[in-house]
Amino acid sequence: MITFDLSCDQGHRFEGWFRNRQEFERQLGEGLLVCPLCGSGKVRKEPCAPAVHVGRRTAPERPEAGPRDRGRPRPEAFFLALARFVERNFEDVGGRFAEEARKIHRGEAEARNIRGTTTSEEEEALREEGVEFLKVPLPKYDA
Ligand SMILES: [Zn+2]
Question: 18 CA to middle of ligand 1, Å?
Answer without folding.
Answer: 19
